[in-house]
Amino acid sequence: MVSREVQAHDTVVRFGNAAVGGEKFAVIAGPCSVESEEQLMSVAEVVKKHGAVALRGGAYKPRTSPYDFQGMGVDGLKLLHKAKQQLGLPTVSEVMEVSQMDSMCEYVDCLQIGARNMQNYALLKAVGESKKPVLLKRGLSATIEELLLAAEYIYDAGNPNIILCERGIRTYETATRNTLDLNAVAYLKQRTHLPVVVDPSHGTGVRELVIPLSRAAAAVGADGIIVESHLNPCEALSDGHQALTGPMFKQLMQELKPFVEAA
Ligand code: PEP
Ligand code: MN
Q1: Pocket residue to mutate for ligand 1, from 120, 178, 199, 229, most atoms within 8 A of Cβ
Q2: 202 in ligand 1 pocket by Cβ < 6 Å?
Q3: What CATH number should be reported for the domain holding residue 227?
Q4: Per-residue pLDDT tens for 20-57?
Q5: Domain that residue 142 falls in
Q6: Are 40 and 2 in contact (CB under 8 A)?
Q7: Which of 14, 22, 49, 123 is the 20 to 30 Å CA partner of 163?
Q8: Per the database record, which ranges form the DAHP synthetase I/KDSA domain (predicted)?
Q9: What CA–CA distance (Å, rounded) separates 89 from 151?
């Protein structure tokens, strides 16, 4: 069970050299989508240089419009694997369907369940039966209770290596893409032993808001963030408006230094 009542100590989820849920604030960073070898490697080098512990990048993309870029698929997974081999950064990528599990498990270190699939129970069971760590995102309109029950599906299927992710929810507010629910972070830290990370990129949808909300995530007690970055966001094939540029990522890491370096 994911409740603190059955396990008082914090779960630490490890993949490669990354540890999420320990003493240090973990920064997972990379592009929304893997677009090309050049794009992925160049941003991966930058985020590694400034202290990211893992590389994110979507190969299967859940796009609102079917006419938008849908991701590179298995070729994108292979590029993530190559980046990991060259830079030593473990990888996080989204699995959208059970049929993608074999290739995901072959090439990726941590399986992301996207917001749109938080209640895809067949997929939750499939990642639960795998041995890979899972980053489970809160659904667009899911309550905290529903998020915890989704995590329970994975846990109950045999996989205790679950990272919860608050990525913003739908509210009446339209000034930002979503409303980042920082209450959820403080609440979840009390209710569950699982690590909790924040996605300030999807939580705001606005590049200029990502650094302040990352600081807020650290202040409220999150175990880390997963953040989108692109060296040329104007050319990005998805979510360019919320991607941190290279200099902004450097700035982010400087501002998070006390948390990232905590002993
Ligand atoms: C993503 O991480 O690129 C993504 C699609 O996130 P979410 O599922 O939170 O919308
Ligand atoms: Mn995205």
Answers
A1: 199
A2: yes
A3: 3.20.20.70
A4: 998 899 999 999 999 999 999 999 999 999 999 999 99
A5: 13-256
A6: no
A7: 49
A8: 21-257
A9: 25
